[in-house]
Specification:
The protein is of the alpha/beta class. The chain is built from 21 helices and 12 strands. The strands form 3 sheets. A 5-stranded mixed sheet has the order 2-1-3-11-4. A 5-stranded mixed sheet has the order 7-6-8-5-9. It has a two-stranded parallel sheet with strand order 10-12. Strand 1, helix 3 and strand 2 form a beta-alpha-beta unit. Helix 20 packs antiparallel against helix 21. The protein is globular.
């Protein structure tokens, strides 16, 4: 499960979304299927009319109150270790407090299998009540009309339920039509893991706060067998943690890789500057390439200064470092345009085929999972981040021993979610190819990104 926790999308069964897309589109069309009119490789911002849900009407939502006993099903992939036991314990606590509601957990071994199981269930008209979903899955479900919006239950953007969340988490629950379609579950963000002893020896008292200083620090230690940072650029079908770092860099330099409607803008000025930043870092000898979490390995071997990765990988970083030096954690530096980060992990969606009683029971369970007490327990035992500041306030003892959690949770206020569009996986492949070409073949950043933009637009149109 580690790969799925580290990168934004679980690619363990990479073909699942491609194989099942046609099936889902046939399953329903209540949400409409307005296609984008964007074209070409300009990468400019699209108007609101380019939302793939353009012209759709929000679901009316559940009506009435549950009468008698209600059973809901939850398709999830918390299949191992403390993830499994923590979800089971929270579910038992909820059932004890709500004796008229039974929650049946339907477990999948990984996210790829979960996606296939959900889509197979929808196609067979046996959808669960709720399910974990990445943003791209939710977008496909919404376009096919098989999930409900949650606006009526959350009270909209200004509702109490939404306002309790970190701002980046709250924004992550929406699709381009402005409606709330998801509710947060297991969330993480990216942090800068570093060797403070090595940084101190280089004359710095703390982690860099700008990407310019990050490059200077990385270059200053890159000698005698040490390289500032080692990354895995990925490639076709392989979005790595470092591929996500590149997307974060692009936003920090002024151009998110997708606009607010999910239209690729891979050759936008900020994206090109971010790619050039990485190319320059490699040219200076401060960035090396490897496979299978090479930054973590280099950091642990004291052959690297930094590793940019998901906070969900903290235990792996600490295991690699051991007692060689105190593992440093810091929020990601700021770029010329802003400080950016990415909120990762899945949300929960409510399937439209559930009864009104099931939908209300499901919403009650979903709210329970995000209460301060539940989130404090979840974060303490799993390494995922609490999705509300109120939960963090209840983690005093844990934070005293694990100050990195406060750093990572704070990043959720300036984090963006992954592209909430059905074509996210296919188009991201083109970006991963561009990153690999620039860093492994020396391809010109602008040329590589122009090709990625052209190919991504073709992928997007094919998905519509």
């Amino acid at each position: 499960m580690r790969k799925a926790h580290t990168v934004r999308h679980a690619r363990l069964v990479g073909a699942a979304s491609v194989v099942l897309t046609g099936t889902l589109v046939l399953a329903g069309c209540a949400s409409g299927g307005g296609s984008s009119s964007a074209s070409g490789g300009s990468g400019g911002n699209a108007s609101s009319s380019n939302c793939f849900l353009s012209g759709s009407a929000p679901s009316a939502g559940p009506a009435g109150n549950p009468n008698g006993k209600t059973t809901i099903t939850f398709m999830e992939a918390m299949s191992g270790g403390t993830l499994k036991s923590s979800l089971q314990r929270l579910t038992s606590q909820f059932e004890a407090a709500n004796p008229n509601i039974t929650v049946q957990l339907e477990e999948s071994p990984d996210y790829g299998t979960l996606e296939k199981n959900e889509k197979d269930a929808v196609s067979a008209h046996k959808a669960p009540t709720i399910g974990q979903a990445y943003e791209g899955w939710a977008a496909e479900y919404a376009r096919s009309g098989v999930i409900d919006t949650l606006d009526q239950m959350t009270g909209g953007a200004s509702g109490t339920a939404m306002s309790a969340l970190y701002s980046g988490v709250a924004a992550d629950q929406k699709l381009c039509d402005g409606n709330t379609w998801m509710w947060p579950f297991n969330k993480s963000a990216y942090v800068n893991f570093y060797n403070p002893t090595m940084l101190q020896a280089a004359g710095q008292s703390g982690a860099p706060t700008t990407w310019a200083q990050f490059a200077t620090d990385a270059e200053s230690v890159s000698k005698n067998g040490v390289t500032g940072i080692t990354i895995d650029p990925g490639g076709k079908g392989d979005l790595t943690a470092d591929g996500v770092w590149f997307e974060i860099l692009a936003e920090a330099y002024g151009t998110p890789v997708y606009d607010r409607n999910g239209i690729p803008q891979f050759n936008g000025p900020g994206v090109v500057k971010a790619m050039q930043y990485l190319a320059d870092l490699k040219k200076s000898g401060a960035l090396a390439l490897g496979k299978n979490f090479p930054g973590e390995t280099a950091l642990g071997a004291q052959k690297g200064l930094f590793d940019i990765s998901s906070v969900a990988g903290y235990s792996f970083e600490q295991q690699a470092v051991g007692t060689k030096f105190p593992l440093g954690t810091a929020d990601l530096p700021a770029g010329p345009a802003k400080q950016a980060n990415q909120v990762n992990g899945t949300n929960i969606v409510i399937f439209d085929s559930a009864t009104a009683a099931q939908k209300q029971a499901a919403w009650k369970f979903m709210q329970f999972l995000t209460t301060p007490a539940s989130q404090a327990y979840w974060a303490t035992n799993t390494g995922y981040l609490p999705v509300t500041p109120a939960a963090l306030d209840q983690m005093t003892s844990f934070l005293a021993k694990n100050p990195w959690m406060r750093t990572a949770a704070g990043a959720l206020n300036h984090s963006s979610g992954s592209a909430p569009v059905p074509w996210a996986d296919d188009t991201q492949d083109e970006l991963s190819v561009a990153l690999a070409d620039v860093l492994t073949k020396g391809t010109d950043p602008k040329a590589a990104l122009d090709k990625a933009q052209s190919d991504a637009m073709a992928d997007m149109k094919a998905s519509q």
